[in-house]
Amino acid sequence: MAFVDTVPASDAEGPVHAMYARQQKAYGYVPGYAKVFSLRPELMGLWADLQRGIRQHIAPREFELATLAAARALKSTLCSLAHGMFVLKFFTPEELETILGGNGVCAGVISEKDAALMKYAELVARDASVTTQADIDELRAVGFSDAEIFDIAAAAAARAFFTKILDALGSDGDHCYAELSAGLKERLSVGRQLSVTMQESVVDG
């Protein structure tokens, strides 16, 4: 259960019902994080707009690597698990284990460019105030343009907004994370333990 009272899917009306229906269409059920946003459903729409704006300038693979790195730096178990699963669209579970272990470049799983992207996203999420010109120069050296560096920073900074709300209000986990291996779940569980509630669907009509 979340720390705050949220609107059950069966009781959703108006903007909450519409928001839940959009989430259900995307995932097949109403995710735990969406229930937290039932308190202010209009913010979920603004969050979706922000994500679309960021994603249109960055390749899906790079977006997921940056977001996963940021989520782990922010100690968000929920976002780490979710985006760990999204990263599996591009890597095998064994490759992801290697990346999370810090051996991705040596093992030939990711490039130096990928590693630099993840390192910078982690830095932005953990403490952007310590960023220096050298960090930007490192990204330029492996082939990122300044606009692309902005995109990485935006992806990481936006993730901070989302993780802070979800962790502050005790967002529940989702059953789909059970599909991950025990090893991956352990590596991706970087913050508080999640409670898992039954999947809910909105009532049509």
Number of strands: 0
So what's the overall shape? Answer: globular
Domain tally: 2
Structural class: mainly alpha
CATH superfamily (homologous) name of the largest domain: AhpD-like
Figure out the total of helices: 10
Q: Can you give me a brief rundown of this structure?
A:
With 205 residues, this protein is mainly alpha-helical. It is built from ten helices and no strands.
Describe this protein's structure.
By secondary structure, the chain is an all-alpha fold. The protein has 2 domains: 1-56, no CATH class; 59-188, Up-down Bundle (AhpD-like). It contains 10 helices and no strands. The protein has helices at residues 14-27, 32-36, 41-55, 60-73, 77-87, 93-100, 112-127, 133-141, 146-168, 182-188. The two termini are 26 Å apart.
Question: How do the strands and helices of this protein lay out in sequence?
Answer:
Layout: H1 14-27, H2 32-36, H3 41-55, H4 60-73, H5 77-87, H6 93-100, H7 112-127, H8 133-141, H9 146-168, H10 182-188
Helix pairs in contact: 3-9, 4-5, 4-7, 4-9, 6-10, 7-8, 7-9
Which structural traits does this protein have?
single chain, 205 residues, mainly alpha, AhpD-like, 2 domains
